[in-house]
Amino acid sequence: MMKTKILAAAILSLCVAIVCSAQPSATGTKGSSAPYNEGPVWTLTMIKTKPGLNDDYLKQITGTVKPVYDEEKKQKIILDYKILNGDTSNPQDFNILILVEYPNWAAFDNLREKMDPIVEKVMGTEDQRRATAVKRLDVREILGTKTMREITLK
Questions:
Q1: How far apart are CA 10 and CA 8, in angstroms?
Q2: Against a cut of 0.90, is the pTM above it?
Q3: DSSP assignments along 12-78, one per residue
Q4: Is residue 76 located within the same domain as residue 139?
Q5: Structural domains of the chain, count
Q6: Per-residue pLDDT for 6 more than 70?
Q7: Within this chain, do residues 59 and 78 fall inside the same structural domain, yes or no?
Q8: What CATH number corresponds to the domain at position 137?
């Protein structure tokens, strides 16, 4: 009886594996039936600055965040970054959007090991970075972060 259950479980597992491998990939890779091709991966950080402090926040990140992104770009950790500045559509909306472009999902593997030396060089020790982050609380709120893949429709 036990051998029959083990054999049935093994056959079921094999059938599931065969069915899954026969399904078309939705990744958009060459030969895929997906209606798109995959591109780079972007992180989007939505920031809401306090009224009248937009320029203050942008000045802060010019001396800290920008040099980090520039070095990451130089070392090919990221492909690019963009900062969008605009109006809010309601009181809960963001007015700054920071986008960072990575070549693919694999770029996130061991990312902290690559970034920590850069961040420490530019922004100082962990205590110094914490103090800077606390000061930023006075001028902005991070509403959220998303990570999304760019796609190109076929």
A1: 5
A2: no
A3: HHHHHHHHHHHSPPSS--TT--SSEEEEEEEEEEEEEEPTT-HHHHHHHHHHTHHHHHHHHHHTTS-
A4: yes
A5: 2
A6: no
A7: yes
A8: 3.30.70.100
The parent domain of residue 26 ranges over: 1-33
CA distance 95 to 1: 66
Same domain (yes/no): 60, 42: yes
Shared domain check, 40 and 16: no
C-alpha triplet 145, 147, 98: angle, nearest 5° = 55
Q: What is the mean pLDDT of residues 10-35?
A: 53
Residue 9 is predicted with a pLDDT of 46
For residue 100, give the amino acid letter: V
Q: Pairing relation of β-strands 96-102 and 36-49? A: antiparallel
The better pLDDT of the pair 124, 4 is held by 124
Show the beta-strand stretches assigned E in 5-114: 36-49, 80-85, 96-102
- Which amino acid belongs to residue 65? V
Rg of the chain, C-alpha, whole Å: 23
Predicted local distance difference test score (pLDDT) of residue 131: 86
The pLDDT, as a whole number, for residue 56 is 94
| β-bridge mates for residue 82, sequence order | 99
Q: Are residues 26 and 41 in the same domain?
A: no
pLDDT of residue 30: 62
Identify the pLDDT of residue 76.
96
